Amino acid sequence: MGEIALLGLEFYGRHGVRPEEGRLGARFVVDLWLKVPFEGKGDRLEETVDYAAVYALVEEVVRHRRFYLIEALADHLAEALLQAFPRLEGVRVRVHKPHAPIPGVFRDVYAETEKTRS
Fold first, then answer.
1. CB 3.0–4.6 Å: which of 53, 55, 92, 100 could bond 33 by disulfide?
2. Which of 35, 41, 97, 115 is labelled catalytic?
């Protein structure tokens, strides 16, 4: 088993509980860790997961769906990735909301989930 990481995928989305978050939107950052079986010394795309297709799926969800909670967004992304890519044995998804409406100084807010194929 191996792991492929796609880190720092940035998209503009409209997630959040407050009405202005849905109206104005904000930047979201997604990190992915994909567990994929590495078979021998193969060197073909069919033996792994197409990163461009993974990116496209994440982009579609983050940009065109609306979730009130980043926890729900992370969970949906994990489920969607497992469903769309049968070669994945597991996935860890972290969704950052760097401009969360928190009254104070902070560096980052994120929600993370990990799922494996049953």
1. 92
2. 97
| Contact yes or no for 74/112 (Cβ under 8 A) | yes
Quote the pTM value. 0.92
Query: What type of residue is 94?
Result: R
Helix axes 51-64, 70-84, angle to 10 degrees: 140
**Which of these, 113, 62, 54, 59, lies nearest to 81 by C-alpha position?**
54
Supply angle C-alpha 74, 75, 76, rounded to 5.
90
Copy the structure tokens of residue 117: 């194929």
* pLDDT tens track for 1-44: 889 999 999 999 999 999 888 888 999 999 999 999 877 667 77
Q: Where are the alpha helices (DSSP H) in 1-118?
A: 19-24, 51-64, 70-84
Domain edges within the chain: 2-116
Residue 97 annotated among the catalytic residues of the structure: yes
Domain 2-116 fold: GTP Cyclohydrolase I, domain 2 (3.30.1130)
Do residues 115 and 78 make contact, with C-beta atoms less than 8 angstroms apart?
A: yes
